[in-house]
Amino acid sequence: MIRAIEATEDLLTVLDAEPSPDCVEDMIAVQTLALGSKALVVVTLTRPAQHNALNLAGWRRLARVFNSLRDDSTVRVVIVRGAGGRAFGAGADISEFPAKRLGSAAADQYNAAIASALQAIQSVPFPVIAMIEGLAVGGGCELATACDVRLASTGSRFGIPIGRLGVTLGLTETRAVAGLIGAANLKYLVYSGALATADQALAWGLVQKVVEAGELRAETARLARNIAESSEITVRATKQVTALAADPAVTDGHELIRELHAQAYDGDDLREGVDAFLIGRTPQFTDGRTPAHGRS
User: Which has the closest alpha carbon to 8: 33, 45, 43?
Assistant: First the structure.
């Protein structure tokens, strides 16, 4: 179901409400909002009574959602959130472990489903914003770190208290979390079982901004709208180049870097952005390939 929006306030209305049941499949709701020819997508974990813990079907559904969005050229930004306001996500559903995660063979399948979901989020070419209210623990914390940007309310708590369960971290999850907060802080979260406050998460770099609970939805809507109205060339290139920057062997001569530079400096977005800046108007970007304002 696609709903047209006209302003940030319309997106805020969607974020203020729980998704309707017809948007939900395997505990994951997907709402697509049309902003002209662009699309903003809201993905919601919908098990508030269980703090939005995901079972195996939910993790697999999350992977399918992002894999299907990856090739949608209209999508500009995705917001991931948890229903109910008390939790972003509590990770995996422990109640199904006896049937589906005990024994190495079963665990391999379960762990692969979690890794596939996180990899699907990381691999989409557009930004993914985690809107975090309440608990983001275990797989919920790992899910948040797979997103590009994390905004959190002051009452949020973060942790990976798996020492009380006896499970191990997967490599995908470890890279996602340690890449943000460092190996030592990740070890501390696991060894201590402690839940970090939003301010501690901010200091570690786990989240990028902390706001009062009543402001979180508006802050998220503003950021999403700003991304949607920015140059798609700039936004997508930023995600790609920052991923490459983690590899010290990559230089400015890398094939993808050269390709991105060519797209930007030979494309129409730069001309539109400079023209708008020089005469003091708001830029109207297209897809970076079609001339703006009728220019040829």
Answer: 33
Number of domains in the chain: 2
Q: Which of 229, 247, 280 is the last residue of a domain?
A: 229
What is the rounded distance in angstroms from the CA atom of residue 124 to the CA atom of residue 131? 18
Residue 289: alpha-carbon gap to chain centroid: 26
**Rounded distance, CA 54 to CA 76, Å?**
26
User: What's this model's pTM, rounded to 2 decimal places?
Assistant: 0.90
Whether residues 219 and 284 fall in one domain = no
Q: Beta-carbon neighbour count of residue 165 at 10 Å?
A: 13
**26 and 102 share one domain:** yes
Whether 50 contacts 58, CB under 8 Å? no
**Same domain flag for 16 and 33:** yes
Same domain (yes/no): 154, 277:
no
Task: Identify the DSSP state of 152.
Answer: E
Considering the domain architecture, whether residues 278 and 197 belong to the same structural domain is answered as no
The first and second tokens of residue 257, run together, are 């870097």
What span, in angstroms and rounded, lies between the C-alpha atoms of 111 and 101? Answer: 8
pLDDT digits (tens, 9 = 90+) for 79-136: 999 999 999 999 888 888 888 888 888 888 889 999 999 999 999 999 999 999 999 9
